[in-house]
Amino acid sequence: MSDNNNTHSQFQTITTDTESREAYILGKPPRIAALPPEERSEEQQQVLDEISMVVVDGVQKPREDLDCLEILIRHSELYLAHLGVGKQFLSGCDLSIRDRELAILRIGWLSQAPFEWGSHVVIAKRNGISAEEIEWVIEGSSAPGWNKHDRATLRAMEELHFDSMITDETWADLAETYSDRELIELTVIAGQYKTVAYMQNSLRLPIPKGKQGLDAR
Fold first, then answer.
1. How many Cβ atoms sit within 10 Å of the Cβ of residue 214?
2. Residues with Cβ within 8 Å of residue 40, at least 6 apart in sequence
3. What does the pLDDT look like over 21-50, one tens digit per residue?
4. How many CB atoms within 10 Å of residue 168?
5. I want to staple 167 with a disulfide (CB 3.0 to 4.6 A). Which of 3, 26, 47, 134 is the partner?
6. Residue 77 forms part of a structural domain
7. 61 lies in which domain range?
8. What is the CATH number of the domain that holds 169?
């Protein structure tokens, strides 16, 4: 892929039918059943108890996805390792909450991941990202409303999604406002939440009751 202005024309808005996409992912039961209490080891039950609460933006609250956790504790060691990275981004990273959520939302939309998208629309709006900006996320970095910083953030997610590489042009724009630590975090956050999308979609993890998927705004 060439590193020039034509690069960005390749990042087209995802225009799939969200209803069909959600039916494909969520219209059937999870592919792996929840681990029943009687089959859980003492360690698995302890892990489940410990992860049933989550800290998001400095606030501790019960997790709403207990059904999913009861599936994921089948491989509790791997899930704990994965969760550790997620916790770092949700409560301990250098990136601002706004930058973090714009990046996650763009990856979630490009991945057409109902669970991830719906969850992070809620978090984003709670932290000051407007419904209009969420519509711009769907359009992507080409939406006319973005400032240079936000546009570069979304464009980086698009380039990583489609080409697994941030172009020199985009990197230069990012480096104007991001620290070295934040630049490292931005690349890792793309991979972390792409992995979340892979897991949620492919395991067909159910969205918590009352929550929206790809129609969330």
1. 25
2. 48, 73
3. 999 999 999 999 999 999 999 999 999 998
4. 10
5. 3
6. yes
7. 17-203
8. 1.20.1290.10
